[in-house]
C-alpha cells in the first residue's frame, strides 16, 4: 500500500498549570482507543509516536481504573501528533479520487506559566522556538478553568481578568522575537476559542452562560487580547477572538472515582480543528479586497478539505498528482477551488445529512467522516456545548 497522504491540522491549547491540559489530551486519546473497530466507526485515532500514545493511554487507564490522576507537568510544553485514519473501503474507486487519505492532528500544549514569568537567556530562546510551532495552528483554545471559576464565585472577574491580562502581556513579551523585523505574520492562529475546562463542576452553566460570564466580567480584557493578537498578523480583520465558545469536561470527577465515560465536548475537538478553519477562512477570503498572501494561504489551506468534503473528483485528482504549479496558479485556485469551497461551505442542514448518507452508502469513508464532523458541530450547538461565531 502506498504511504498514506495526510492533511495536517494543528491546534494550540493554552492553559495555566492545573487547568486540565494533560487530562484533556489523555481523555481524548483514551476515549479514541476504546472505540471498538466496527461497522459504525468510520475512522480511528492513533498516536504517531508509540511511546506518547502509551503515556496518554496509561493516564487514561489510571483514571478509569483507580481514579489516579496524571502527574503534574508544570512548565513543560508538549506536542502530540495523532493520525486520524479513515476506515478502508471496499469501494476502490472512492479511495482513488480523494485528495488525501487521512488527517493528522497535531496538538500543542502551552503552559500558562510561560506568560506569568519573564525569563531571559537560553530559556527565553527555547520558549520562542517552541512558540514557533504554534504558528501552524489555525485554531487556538484558551482554557478557562471551571474549578477557578467556582473558587471565585460571584467575583469571577478576579480570575478572568488576571488570566486574560497575563496572557496578553506574555504574548507582547515575545512579539519582537517572533516577528522577523516586525513584519506581521501570514500564518498564525486566527480563531481563538474560549473553552471552559472541567465544566462538570458547573453543571448549571451552559455555553451561553459561559459566554455571558466572560463578556460581562472581562470584556475589556478580551478587547485588549484581541488588539494584541491583531498586532501579530497581516490582515487583522481576519481574526476571531472570543467569538467561539466550547464547554469541555474530560470526565466526571467525584471523590475516589473518575467516570471517564462522562465527557463533554471532546468529540468536538477534531471537528473544530478540521471544519472550523474551512468555514471561517472561506468567509474571510470571500470578503477580502486584496488577494495577497493571506488570501492565498487561506485558499490553499482549505481547497483540499473542501474537495474532500464535496467529493469533487477532478480537482482532487489534480491535487493528488501533486501538480503544485497548477495549485499555486492563483487563477486556477480561484476558479476551481473557489466553487468547491463555496459548495462545501453551503453544505449545511438537510443537505449535509443527505451528503453524509450518500457518502456512507457509497463507502466514501473520508467524505463520510468529514460530513459527520460538520454534523457534530451542529449537534454541539444544539446541545448548548458550542457557540460558533456568526460574524
Ligand atoms: N472536575 C474535573 N477536574 C478535572 C478535569 N480535568 C482535570 N481535572 C483536575 O485538574 C487537575 C489538573 O489537570 P491537568 O490535566 O494535570 O492540568 P495541566 O496542568 O493543565 O496539564 C487534575 O489533576 C484533576 O484533578 C475535568 O474535566 N473535570
Ligand atoms: Mg500538564
Give me the number of helical elements.
15
Element pattern in H and E: EHEHEHEHHEHHEHEEEHHHHHHHE
Judged by helices, strands and strand pairing, the structural class is alpha/beta
Q: What compounds sit in this structure?
A: guanosine-5'-diphosphate, magnesium ion
Task: Give the CATH level 1 class.
Answer: Alpha Beta
Specify the CATH homologous superfamily. Answer: P-loop containing nucleotide triphosphate hydrolases
Question: What overall geometry do the principal axes of the alpha carbons give?
Answer: globular
The tally of beta strands, per DSSP, is 10
Head-to-tail CA distance between termini: 44 Å
- In spatial order, strands of the major sheet run 2-3-4-1-5-6-7-10
CATH architecture verdict: 3-Layer(aba) Sandwich
Radius of gyration: 21 Å
Q: What fraction of residues sit in β-strands?
A: 15-25%
CATH topology: Rossmann fold
Number of domains: 1
How many strands, what sense, and barrel or not for the largest sheet? 8 strands, mixed
Q: In percent, how helical is the residue content?
A: 40-55%
Amino acid at each position: 500500500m502506498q504511504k498514506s497522504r495526510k492533511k495536517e491540522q494543528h491546534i494550540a491549547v493554552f492553559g495555566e498549570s492545573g487547568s486540565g491540559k494533560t487530562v484533556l489530551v489523555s481523555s481524548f486519546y483514551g476515549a479514541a482507543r476504546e472505540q471498538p473497530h466496527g461497522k459504525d466507526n468510520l475512522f480511528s485515532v492513533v498516536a504517531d509516536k508509540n511511546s506518547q500514545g502509551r503515556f496518554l493511554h496509561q493516564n487514561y487507564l489510571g483514571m478509569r481504573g483507580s481514579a489516579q490522576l496524571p502527574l503534574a507537568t508544570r512548565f513543560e510544553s508538549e506536542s502530540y501528533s495523532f493520525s486520524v485514519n479513515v476506515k478502508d473501503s471496499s469501494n476502490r474507486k472512492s479511495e482513488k479520487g480523494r485528495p488525501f487519505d487521512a488527517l493528522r492532528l497535531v496538538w500543542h500544549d502551552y503552559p500558562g506559566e510561560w506568560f506569568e514569568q519573564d525569563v531571559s537567556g537560553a530559556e527565553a530562546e527555547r520558549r520562542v522556538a517552541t512558540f514557533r510551532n504554534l504558528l501552524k495552528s489555525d485554531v487556538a483554545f484558551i482554557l478557562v478553568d471551571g474549578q477557578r471559576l467556582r473558587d471565585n464565585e460571584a467575583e469571577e472577574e478576579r480570575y478572568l481578568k488576571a488570566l486574560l491580562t497575563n496572557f496578553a502581556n506574555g504574548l507582547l513579551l515575545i512579539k519582537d522575537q517572533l516577528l522577523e523585523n516586525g513584519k506581521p505574520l501570514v500564518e498564525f492562529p486566527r480563531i481563538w476559542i474560549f473553552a471552559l475546562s472541567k465544566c462538570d463542576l458547573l453543571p448549571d452553566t451552559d455555553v451561553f452562560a459561559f459566554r455571558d460570564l466572560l463578556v460581562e466580567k472581562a470584556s475589556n480584557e478580551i478587547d485588549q487580547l484581541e488588539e494584541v493578537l491583531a498586532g501579530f498578523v497581516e490582515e487583522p480583520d481576519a481574526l476571531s477572538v472570543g467569538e467561539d465558545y466550547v464547554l469541555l469536561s474530560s470526565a466526571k470527577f467525584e471523590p475516589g472515582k473518575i467516570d471517564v465515560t462522562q465527557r463533554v465536548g471532546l468529540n468536538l475537538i477534531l471537528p473544530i480543528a478540521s471544519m472550523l478553519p474551512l468555514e471561517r477562512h472561506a468567509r474571510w477570503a470571500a470578503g477580502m479586497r486584496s488577494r495577497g498572501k493571506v488570501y492565498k494561504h487561506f485558499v490553499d489551506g482549505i481547497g483540499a478539505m473542501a474537495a474532500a468534503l464535496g467529493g469533487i473528483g477532478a480537482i482532487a485528482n489534480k491535487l493528488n498528482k501533486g501538480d503544485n504549479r497548477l495549485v499555486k496558479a492563483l487563477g486556477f485556485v480561484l476558479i476551481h477551488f473557489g466553487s468547491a469551497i463555496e459548495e462545501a461551505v453551503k453544505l449545511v442542514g438537510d443537505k449535509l445529512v443527505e451528503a453524509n448518507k450518500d457518502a456512507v452508502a457509497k463507502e466514501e469513508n473520508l467524505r463520510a467522516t468529514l460530513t459527520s464532523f460538520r454534523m457534530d458541530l451542529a449537534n454541539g450547538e444544539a446541545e448548548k456545548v458550542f457557540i460558533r461565531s456568526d460574524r
